[in-house]
Amino acid sequence: MALQIFPDISKKTTVSDGTSYAYISVPAADANKPTFLLLHGFPSSSYDWRRIVPKLKEDGYGIIAPDLLGYGDSDKPEEVEAYALKRMADHVKEIVQIEGLKQVIGVGHDWGSGLLSATALAHREIFSGLVFLAVGYISPGPFDIDKLNAITEQVLGTPANGYMKFFIEDSAASVIEANLASFTSLVYPTVPEVWKTDMGPVGAAKRWVTSGKVTAPPPWLSQEELDTHSRILQKGGYTGPLNWYKSAARGVNQEYNSKFTTDESKSLDIPSLLVTATYDGACPPQFQKPNTEKYLRNLRTEQFDCGHWIPLEKADELVKLLEKFSNGI
């Protein structure tokens, strides 16, 4: 919720197809400092970068951090087709152009990594660097939830992405909105191991949410922050955020993805960084690295000992890493 949470450094714009986006906008202190484009994940908003933005700003870096489609102060279309990755990638490029920038360093977390992947493939000229947090590079191809769960169960002994089956149900938004405290408690569990038992197995996430179970937030998240997060998501509901999953699962991206027929067409030479999280039950590191290493030709990798929420759990370490990465480009 850029306009509400960061009013002094935020603005709103409308891209060429009429879609409106709110975003944090901080100009670089001088021409030698790059601008970071921060793309949040699910279920979030630009508020997820609250521990990153002040540090980068203080060090003179430029920042663009949108409330992505369906979130915060940006538009929230209800149509699943509106969440096609290529369409949103075009929006991201326009925002960068509106800010008068030729290139940025893209940073994606969770679904933001998926959007960063699509934007880099469609508009690679606007990126001097790419950083993927928790979720690695996602190459064009089918989004098969059953296959994801089968593969992770074979390796881990239990599925890692069963929650996606719940998220693509027609009733998912209304179920979550009726049990918001419980859902938020699952999204930010007291300990990351909860995701292995109550997010990954098929049916587990829905059981948790509908049971009304609420647990204490993790030690790195205050109740005030949790309440702010909930208010942001309550504003627009969960229809838009869940449409990111539904559009992928229903093949909305299939026609565009089919244009990438070779490994070469799916590959990028842009300097890239993958940062995985040791205790991420939904996005285990061993499943993020192979695809990323295959298609990103100029890649380095790092791993933090934390759960999924790297920008919140390891903010200081992440800022240092981003600045080091930018200096090496």
TrEMBL record:
<dbReference type="InterPro" id="IPR000639">
    <property type="entry name" value="Epox_hydrolase-like"/>
</dbReference>
<dbReference type="InterPro" id="IPR000073">
    <property type="entry name" value="AB_hydrolase_1"/>
</dbReference>
<dbReference type="Pfam" id="PF00561">
    <property type="entry name" value="Abhydrolase_1"/>
</dbReference>
<protein>
    <recommendedName>
        <fullName>AB hydrolase-1 domain-containing protein</fullName>
    </recommendedName>
</protein>
<feature type="domain" description="AB hydrolase-1">
    <location>
        <begin position="34"/>
        <end position="314"/>
    </location>
</feature>
<keyword id="KW-0378">Hydrolase</keyword>
<dbReference type="InterPro" id="IPR029058">
    <property type="entry name" value="AB_hydrolase_fold"/>
</dbReference>
<comment type="similarity">
    <text>Belongs to the AB hydrolase superfamily. Epoxide hydrolase family.</text>
</comment>
